[in-house]
Amino acid sequence: MLVSIISPSFNCEEFIRETYQSIKNQKHKDWEWLVTDDCSTDSSWHILTEIAEQDPRVKLSRNAKNAGAAVSRNNSIERAQGEFLAFLDTDDLWLPSKLTEHLQFMLENEASISFTSYGLIDEQSNDIPQVVDAKLTGAFSYQDMLCKRATMGCCTVMVKASDFDDLSMPLIRAGQDYALWLKLLKTGKRAVIFPKMLSKYRLVTASLSANKVNKAKKTWIIYRKIEKLNLFSASWAFVNYAYRAFFKVNYSERTL
């Protein structure tokens, strides 16, 4: 069963080979990796073309101009041929059983959208002793995700493509993955948690998501501009989001 792996790429020369290796090492071999480069100024594109020359499952595209991760991801989504989509940024990693176990979980639970818990690594790929979404069980609705009752990390999500009419991400510079999960859940589907750590999210100091204040602002914009919540509903959702972000209630402290 073909799984389409969706990735944007921008100046990721430090990590792209390691990310590809984590895909290549998957026990599930029926995949395609759809990477759209957003006009990288480092050697990312050169590295990707080298990889694609050696592995026909790697399918590349490049934006005509720098347009952001949403445009890049949508480019890859439009080219996807798989029955299932999985998302992986070009600095994050998967454990070898990620696709095999997650796909089996999706099929057994007849899930339209699912996610897993995930570990954290630093820029040198050292494990950080935290696992995100490790305490969660069950399924999560649109209202649950508005209040961020799950982190639902992008590198953990898998979607059954045929269950949704529109898989495109909203065209915002940051938080477009969260905005897509909300759009999919707004159809009435629920996101089912597979509570097993199968991915590793890299904490990169210079990344957009590393700036908590900026991330909070983008979340507010999603509530008001994308979801069009009234001031009261947006404020209630934001208070829940801020509480969980501050106290890290979806984290489980342990050594990996």
Walk me through this protein's architecture.
- By secondary structure, the chain is an alpha/beta fold.
- 35% of the residues lie in helices and 23% in strands.
- Strands 1, 2, 3, 4, 5, 6, 7, 8, 9, 10 and 11 form an eleven-stranded mixed sheet that branches.
- The radius of gyration is 17 Å and the shape is globular.
Q: Helix- and strand-based class?
A: alpha/beta
Strand content: 15-25%
Question: How many strands, what sense, and barrel or not for the largest sheet?
Answer: 11 strands, mixed
Mean pLDDT over all positions = 93
- Report the radius of gyration as a whole number of Å: 17 Å
Order of helices and strands: EHEHEHEEHEEEHEHEHHE
Spans where pLDDT lies below 50 across 5 or more residues = none
Give the termini separation. Answer: 31 Å
Seen as an oligomer or otherwise, the chain set is single chain
**DSSP helix count?**
8
So what's the overall shape? Answer: globular
Strand count = 11
Helix content: 25-40%
